[in-house]
Design goal:
Blueprint: H1 19-28, H2 30-47, E1 65-69, H3 75-81, E2 91-96, E3 111-115, E4 130-136, H4 147-154, E5 158-169, H5 181-196, H6 206-213, E6 217-228, H7 238-247, H8 250-257, H9 266-282, E7 285-295
Parallel strand pairs: 1-2, 1-4, 2-3, 4-5
Antiparallel strand pairs: 5-7, 6-7
Helix pairs in contact: 1-2, 1-8, 2-7, 5-8, 5-9, 7-9, 8-9
């Protein structure tokens, strides 16, 4: 019989990473993961009223270079590319450590895909060349390194005057209203796992890291409450898509927790994925997404 461990994740020796999450996702297959990311994109896009780029750049001006880090199959880039007629003429680059997620070469919609880990230095031919560098929902993968190091690494990519935009879920202070016990437990689990793998409360520090660690100026931030499951709109299948987008990664995150000291027992970790899915379907829930952006200073 499993027992509840009350030792906090902060007591866990650093070195645990998101490997279990990645391994479990791979075992499930790339098609379900791509569908989950597409579902999340649709839900986020609705919450943001279709405004995928909050950094103040104009897609009406020709010749923009836009990079999406952790792009998977390029869903975000395709959304930007189709957002206005002028946007289809810009140059788009998607990078990911998992090249298996890239679309077939005959279905790439004018997007260049490059296999690259954001933990590694960026190739010199990419540095200082982009008008916008985007990353969404990937900073936990910085472990065992701090997210600030990943952001400083990203800061080598924008040209002078170019922008970085980051978007992450707020696990440490989720919406106080609209969530039941299962979603509250999920937020607590995510916070304990982020502490345990050494990345901490990075979502609430996005703006500060852009400013203080990466040297960005004109830093801005917006927060969006995303309605899930029964609380979401029925149009476009957003209810079912939001459930899949949020509930599907609960199991992989619980798998990471098994290598950490958390407040959850093994039995509780086993049951959490089903509890979250059922609660979202029956009563709905909410998460808060934090978007932050900053501009690389003009040189000279």
């Amino acid at each position: 019989m499993s027992t509840t461990t009350t030792t906090t994740a902060l007591d866990e020796p650093k070195g645990a990473t998101m490997d279990n999450f990645m391994n479990m996702t791979k075992e499930a297959g790339h098609t379900p993961e791509i569908q989950r990311l597409m579902d999340l994109h649709a839900v986020y896009n609705d919450a943001m009223d279709g405004q995928l780029i909050l950094a103040p750049i104009s897609l009406e001006e020709p010749g923009k270079r836009i990079l999406d880090c952790g792009t998977a199959d390029g869903t975000w880039l395709r959304g930007v590319r189709s957002s206005t007629p002028a946007a289809s003429h810009h140059h788009y680059v998607g990078t990911d450590i998992e090249a298996e997620l890239f679309p077939p070469t005959n279905h790439r919609d004018g997007i260049t895909y490059i296999q690259h880990s954001f933990q590694d230095p960026w190739p010199p031919h990419l540095q200082h060349t982009f008008d916008l560098v985007h990353m969404r929902g990937s900073l936990a993968g910085s472990s065992p390194h701090p997210p600030a190091q990943t952001i400083k690494n990203l800061a080598t990519l924008p040209r002078p005057g170019g922008w970085i935009q980051l978007m992450e879920m707020n696990a440490f202070s989720p919406p106080r209203e609209g969530n039941g016990p299962a979603m509250s437990d999920f937020a607590r689990l995510a916070a304990e796992v982020w502490d345990g793998i050494g990345v901490g409360d990075f979502a609430n520090g996005l703006g500060a890291m852009l400013r203080e660690e990466a040297g960005m100026r004109d830093v801005g931030e917006r927060r969006f409450v995303v309605e899930l499951g029964k609380r979401a709109k029925e149009e476009g299948g957003l209810r079912a898509r939001s459930v899949n987008g949020v509930a599907a990664p609960v199991g992989p995150i619980a798998a990471v927790a098994r290598d950490l000291r958390t407040s959850f027992s093994g039995e509780e970790l086993d049951g959490l994925p089903g509890r979250v899915r059922a609660e979202l379907e029956d009563q709905g829930g909410r998460v808060e997404m934090i978007v932050a952006w900053g501009q690389r200073p003009l040189e000279g």
